[in-house]
Each structure stands twice: as structure tokens, then as C-alpha cells.
Design a protein that fits this description.
This protein is an alpha+beta fold and 450 residues long. The chain is built from 15 helices and nine strands. A five-stranded mixed sheet has the order 1-2-7-9-8. A hairpin with a 6-residue loop joins strand 5 and strand 6. Helix 8 packs across helix 11. It is elongated and about 80 Å long.
Length: 450
């Protein structure tokens, strides 16, 4: 725990405290800290406390909503349009409706099997073509009727679940998480909250031009867990494991992670994933009915259905990886507007890549819900020049001349050499100790300051 405490003391209160400034107020309870905006007027000018510095810098609120990023060249204001109204059904209903519907499709297809056998081959082809066409048309119309524009990026997406339904689902899940982790949640007086709240505060205050950021009620929970993980729920709960702070070495790296996770909440990715899964379920139900109608044997139909369920889940993975990439882009944008060093985001994922290399935990990207660390580093490095331009537009201090990515490249080469040595029969115990040894956090001084 001492390295973690040193991490907090290094920031010397510059990353927040129980009394959060800059137009924010904090509400303290035993196990979390919540901060909400007081008013828009108080955000016209505010104090930004730079990482590792005790001095304050007056800076106007940055209102650059985004920078020209690939397909985001033309920003579309956030709006929703629906040709049909959504059903306001309690989420628990769908838990029971889904398996019942699949079972009904199975029985319906099985009952039609006898009639299917008696049909001539030409008529079967016509029916199958009509069935597939009707399914495709229904999915298309259904998707168009539940399409909305993604905030910040302007991307069009399919959303079936309503905001109220999503809130009910998330609140229930958060309650379960809090109940399961109640003995591991650190009290709000713990010094680790200072570092996390300070970073989250800067991200929140400097991105008030995003409506979703203004409307969100953010809460911070620190969980005593050695896993390198943090996650943010759509209702604003920020969960950070203490193990994550063993990996990051400064506020800029922590901002890259929190910015990414907060982006998931701002973009409502959880609702989008549930909606995407629901659309696939509709497709699966139709296919199941068709399989049990066409295949002559119950045994073969059962095996085919089981195989289809095992394979169909891999169709969700590319979609999930695209959402992760979008969160990487928006998270980097949030950090840039908050005047963090966006180059440290590349360092974070490089460190994760090194960690996976040392522990041998790498899995193929096509089997993962997330892009590989190498892919993320390439994407972030591609975006860094544009994000640096965004920092300049926000009148941020110039980045230090020493690029942290250079030092990280030396670490990666060192680890790669040791991995090769391990494959030759040498021991990696010393390497793991060197990789996980937390480096001393250096104070960053902006150009022209001492």
C-alpha cells in the first residue's frame, strides 16, 4: 500500500480533495464520493491544477466539442428520431420473454415439419426465399424505427431499450456490485480518492460543453482489488481498483483510463450493446424456427441449434471492439480538452501489452471483446497529433519536450529480449520484479516555469 500512498502524496492535493473546487461540490458518505455541478455560471472561469504542481493556472472553459477525426468530419447535434414509440416495459419481463420466445419458435418449427415434407421442392424454395426476405425487411424497418444519433460522434445506431429501462437495469446491477464488494470498498476518507477525484474533476469540468457530461451524477468508489481494472456505469458510478494504481505512474495515465471508461457512459454503449444483442436474438429466433422446420430429425436439429448458439456469439465481438475503439477516441478527446498529456494514453496500453507479454495472457484479437493492446497503441498514436492540436485550441500548456513513448519503447524492447531469453530456457522471475516495480513519479513542469 505504501507505493499507492506515495502516489497520492506526490500530487499534494493538486488532484482534488473532499472539498472539490471549480464550481463543484462533493457529497461524502462512508464508501464513496459524489460530485455534481453547482451552476453553469461558475464554469465560465475556473482553476485547473496541473499534475504535480502546487500553483494554480486560470483558464477559460474549453468549448471545442471535437476535432476532425476520420468519419467525424461533420458533427451532427445530438438528437433522437423514432417512427414508432418504444414500449415502456419493465426490463425483468424480457428476461422471461426471451427463452419463452425461443422455445415457442422451436416448437412452431417442429410442428410445421410434417407439412414441409409434403411440399414440392420448387414451393419450398419460394417459401424459404419469402421467409428470408420478410425477415430482412422486418429487421431493416425495425432498425430504422429505432435509430438515433450518438452524442459527440454523430454516428447513427440502433437503440431498442429506453433510457428509463436502462437505468433500471444498471441500478439493479450496481446494487449487486456494491453488495458483493461492500467489504472491499475503501472509505471516502482514504487518500486514494484525492488522486482519482482530481482527475475525474478535470475531465468533467473541462468538458461541460457535452450535455451528457453536465447531466451525469458522478460517484467515485475505490475497491481494494489487485486487478488492473476500472469501469464506469451509465448512471455515473466510477469504480477503480487499487491494483490499477499500481500500474499507472501519473495523473495523465489515470486520465486516459478514466476518460475511456467515462466515454462508455457518455455514449450509452451499454444500451447499444443490449439493443444489438436483442436484434440478433430476433434473427436467431427466425433461424431456429426455420431449422426445426427443415431438418427432418430432432437430434440433428438440436445439434445444429446448439452449434449455432456457440458460433453466433462471435458475431458480437467485432461490434464490441468497434465500441471500444470509439471510447478510446472520445476518451482521448476528453483528456486533451482537460489539458492532460495525451501521449501517456499510448504508454498505458503499451504497459498493458508488456504485462500480458510477461504473464503470457495474450489472446487473439478476433476472440476478444476488446482490441488488442497493440491495435490500441497504433490507433492512439495515429490520433495524438490531432489531439495535440485540440489541446492547443483549448489554450493548454505546451507538452514537455520529452516524449514518454520513447522510454516505453526501450522497456518493450527490454521485455521482448527477456521473453526470447525465457524461450531459450532462462528464468523470468527477475524480469517480472523489474516490470512491476512502480517507478518514482516525477513532477512535471510546464515550459517557462521552474
Amino acid at each position: 500500500m505504501l507505493p499507492l500512498l506515495r502516489f497520492c502524496h506526490r500530487f499534494n492535493g493538486g488532484l482534488g480533495s473532499r472539498s472539490i473546487h471549480n464550481g463543484l461540490t462533493s457529497k461524502i458518505s462512508y464508501n464513496y464520493v459524489r460530485f455534481t455541478l453547482l451552476s453553469r455560471r461558475t464554469l465560465s472561469e475556473h482553476t485547473i491544477r496541473k499534475s504535480g504542481l502546487a500553483s494554480n493556472v486560470r483558464r477559460p472553459l474549453c468549448i471545442h466539442n471535437q476535432i476532425n477525426l476520420d468519419q467525424w468530419q461533420h458533427f451532427t447535434p445530438y438528437r433522437k428520431f423514432h417512427q414508432t414509440s418504444r414500449l415502456n416495459v419493465h426490463p425483468i419481463v424480457w428476461v422471461f420473454v426471451k427463452p419463452i420466445t425461443k422455445l415457442s419458435a422451436l416448437l412452431f418449427g417442429r410442428r410445421l415439419r410434417l407439412h414441409w415434407k409434403e411440399l414440392p421442392h420448387q414451393q419450398k424454395a419460394v417459401i424459404l426465399t419469402a421467409l428470408l426476405g420478410a425477415t430482412a425487411l422486418a429487421l431493416t424497418l425495425y432498425t430504422m424505427a429505432h435509430t438515433e444519433t450518438v452524442p459527440i460522434t454523430g454516428r447513427k445506431r440502433f437503440i431498442f431499450i429506453t433510457h428509463d429501462q436502462m437505468i433500471k437495469i444498471v441500478e439493479r446491477e450496481v446494487e449487486e456490485v456494491l453488495e458483493s464488494c461492500k467489504d472491499k470498498i475503501l472509505p471516502s476518507t482514504h487518500p486514494l480518492y484525492k488522486a482519482i477525484i482530481g482527475v475525474a474533476e478535470r475531465l468533467c469540468v473541462q468538458n461541460q460543453d457535452i450535455q451528457q457530461m453536465k447531466d451525469m451524477q458522478w460517484k467515485v468508489f475505490v475497491i481494494e482489488n489487485d486487478d488492473f481494472n476500472a469501469h464506469v456505469y451509465p448512471t455515473g458510478e466510477i469504480f477503480v481498483n487499487t491494483g490499477l494504481l499500481k500500474l499507472v505512474t501519473n495523473a495523465d495515465q489515470l486520465a486516459a483510463i478514466l476518460g475511456h471508461e467515462m466515454s462508455h457512459a457518455l455514449l450509452s454503449h451499454a444500451a447499444e450493446q443490449l439493443s444489438y444483442a436483442q436484434k440478433w436474438d430476433f434473427f436467431v429466433i427466425v433461424i431456429m424456427a426455420a431449422l426445426w422446420m427443415i431438418i427432418p430429425s430432432d437430434g440433428i436439429a438440436s445439434i445444429t441449434s446448439w452449434f449455432m448458439h456457440r458460433v453466433i456469439k462471435y458475431f458480437d465481438l467485432p461490434f464490441s471492439r468497434e465500441l471500444e475503439k470509439e471510447a478510446d477516441k472520445v476518451g482521448l478527446q476528453l483528456a486533451a480538452k482537460a489539458c492532460f498529456d495525451v501521449r501517456e494514453a499510448s504508454v498505458v496500453w503499451s504497459m498493458m501489452q508488456v504485462k500480458d507479454t510477461v504473464e503470457g495472457n495474450s489472446i487473439p484479437e478476433f476472440m476478444s471483446t476488446h482490441p488488442s493492446n497493440e491495435t490500441r497503441v497504433e490507433l492512439i498514436d495515429f490520433l495524438i497529433p490531432r489531439m495535440t492540436e485540440l489541446r492547443d485550441k483549448c489554450n493548454c500548456p505546451r507538452l514537455p519536450s520529452n516524449d514518454p513513448r520513447v522510454a516505453m519503447q526501450h522497456v518493450k524492447r527490454f521485455v521482448d529480449d527477456k521473453v526470447v531469453a525465457k524461450q531459450a530456457g532462462q528464468n523470468l522471475s527477475k524480469l517480472q520484479a523489474q516490470v512491476y516495480q512502480k517507478p518514482t513519479i516525477q513532477r512535471r513542469v510546464a515550459p517557462g516555469q521552474s
